[in-house]
Amino acid sequence: MNIKTNWHEDAPVHNVNLDDATDRSASYAVVTSIADLTDRDPDDLEPLWDSVDPDALDTFVAHANESSTPYRLTFRYEGYAVEIAENGRLQLTPGGEAVSTASV
Predict the structure, then answer these.
(1) What is the model's pTM?
(2) Would you say 27 and 54 are in contact if contact means Cβ atoms under 8 Å apart?
(3) What 3-state class would DSSP assign to 44?
(4) What is the pLDDT of residues 9-47, one digit of tens each?
(5) 12, 59, 56: which is closest to 34 by C-alpha?
(6) How many helices (H) and strands (E) does the chain have?
């Protein structure tokens, strides 16, 4: 994954373009990006389903993208606020204030 880091109010915000990983699912991108950021093997992370159902996440994102439906999905995983939006952006903020929400 190609992770770009920006700074917002003295905190790093890591961005991944999901459109660059068309052969990978959203759940795969979340897990591998956080593994890369924390220098850990993906198998050493908590199971993603402790935070969100991976199949539901992948189905939601794929369907919303196919139908050009605007969306924003946020949840916490491995100490990161995770946000996925319709513009193909995965944003990871360490210690961020994400809550488990979805909007369409």
Answers:
(1) 0.85
(2) yes
(3) helix
(4) 778 899 998 877 666 899 999 999 999 999 999 999 999
(5) 12
(6) 2, 6
Q: Residue length, the chain?
A: 104
pLDDT tens digits for range 81-92: 999 998 889 999
Alpha carbons within 13 angstroms on the beta-carbon side of residue 44 total 7
3-state secondary structure of 98: coil
**Tokens standing for residue 68:** 């050009």
Task: State the Cα–Cα distance between residues 73 and 62, nearest whole angstrom.
Answer: 13
Q: Is the dihedral of CA 93, 95, 97, 99 positive or negative?
A: positive
**3-state SS assignment for residue 38:** helix
Measured at the CA of 34, the angle between CA 44 and CA 60, to 5 degrees, comes to 105
Q: How far is CA 48 from CA 10, 11, 43, 70, in A?
A: 28, 24, 10, 24
